[in-house]
Amino acid sequence: GKQRMTFMKSNSFPTQKRKQVDRTDIVLPK
Fold first, then answer.
1. Which domain holds residue 23?
2. Which of 1, 6, 25, 28 gets the highest tally of CB atoms within 10 A of its CB?
3. Which portions of the sequence form the region Disordered (predicted)?
């Protein structure tokens, strides 16, 4: 749950791969 907030708050992440991982994290708990 904390990772999702960090992903949305840290929208200036230069690593697109990290964004994909966060997206999967949101789908996993769902």
1. 1-30
2. 25
3. 1-30
